[in-house]
Design brief:
Elements: H1 3-13, E1 18-20, H2 23-29, H3 37-42, E2 48-52, H4 58-66, E3 71-76, H5 79-91, E4 97-101, H6 107-110, E5 116-122, H7 138-145, E6 148-158, H8 161-173, E7 177-182, H9 201-208, E8 214-220
Parallel strand pairs: 1-4, 2-3, 2-5, 3-4, 5-6
Antiparallel strand pairs: 6-8, 7-8
The protein binds S-adenosylmethionine (SAM).
Length: about 250
């Protein structure tokens, strides 16, 4: 491991806003703040919003600064990326944001039923081959329902036509109530809200290559019996190009 990564990991150990919990300890002792993040970390009972696969945590930090009456937690398995957001939270004295280094699959170990109010999923890998790995697939909807309140909102921001189309089908097929849906966020005739204008690291890279950004959000109810839509979706061809050679096809 590079020196820089090691330095970041060691700095994160001492940051109050960062929680890193090896699975062994989690299995043995459980997470002490499960069900009490509000009382024990944030010191209030404001709504809790998660950013999954947060990378450097642009949404976690950006939303926390805009909404002091909500609490934000960025979650990612990669600590070196998370360090960027965690340092901003520490250095700017942001009290309503934290970072949790873990796998998304372990969410129910860290949060009680109904403890979460909203979930943001920002530029995930579309997982075109494996629906069970897709963060907007029904396996993950089932997982989110174990921690989010009934009808809590899920937000997806993505560069991927494949993932966006799949998610539209998934939402419609399961009868979830849509909040917003746009296939070209930054050219939407209704304009872009301040919240959606927050740009993540990956997002900026895709924008620099001329891709359009998609955004869809919906209410995730607890009652629906989840099922996968039976659809064939054309894969994103641009993802197989190396970054330097990326050429955007017309339908990006
Ligand atoms: C393509 S990056 C996007 C990062 C960031 N949201 C952005 O837009 O710049 C996807 C992120 O999801 C994280 N990730 C993927 N699968 C995960 C999982 N199962 N649990 C936790 N993090 C995961 C990766 O480590 C990576 O940082």
């Amino acid at each position: 491991m590079g020196k820089n990564k090691l330095r970041k990991f060691s700095e994160m150990e001492s940051m109050e806003c960062v929680f890193q919990y090896p699975f062994g300890i989690l299995r043995e002792k459980g997470f002490p703040m499960k069900g009490s993040w509000g009382r024990d970390y944030f010191g209030n009972d404001n709504p809790i919003v998660l950013e999954l696969g947060c990378g450097k945590g642009e949404y976690t930090v950006g939303l926390a600064e805009r909404f002091p009456d909500k609490n934000f937690i960025g979650i990612d398995i990669k600590g070196a990326r998370m360090w960027t957001g965690a340092r901003q939270v520490r250095d700017r004295g942001i009290k309503n944001a934290a970072f949790l280094r873990t796998s998304i699959e372990l969410l129910p170990h860290f949060f009680s039923p109904d403890e979460v109010d909203e979930i943001w999923i920002t530029f995930p890998d579309p997982q075109m081959k494996k629906v069970t790995k897709r963060l907007t697939g029904t396996r993950f909807m089932d997982l989110y329902r174990q921690v989010i309140r009934d009808n809590g909102i899920i937000h997806l921001k993505s560069d991927s036509p494949f993932l966006y189309t799949y998610t539209q089908y998934m939402v419609e097929h399961n009868g979830f109530k849509k909040v917003t849906d746009t296939s070209d966020l930054y050219h939407d005739p209704q304009g872009v809200s301040d919240i959606l204008n927050i740009r993540t690291f990956y997002e900026q890279q895709w924008l620099d290559r001329g891709l359009t950004i998609k955004y869809i959000s919906w209410h995730l109810d607890h009652a629906t019996t989840l099922s996968e839509p039976d659809v064939e979706i054309e894969p994103d061809t641009y993802r197989s190009f190396s970054r330097g050679e990326l050429q955007c096809p017309d339908k990006c």
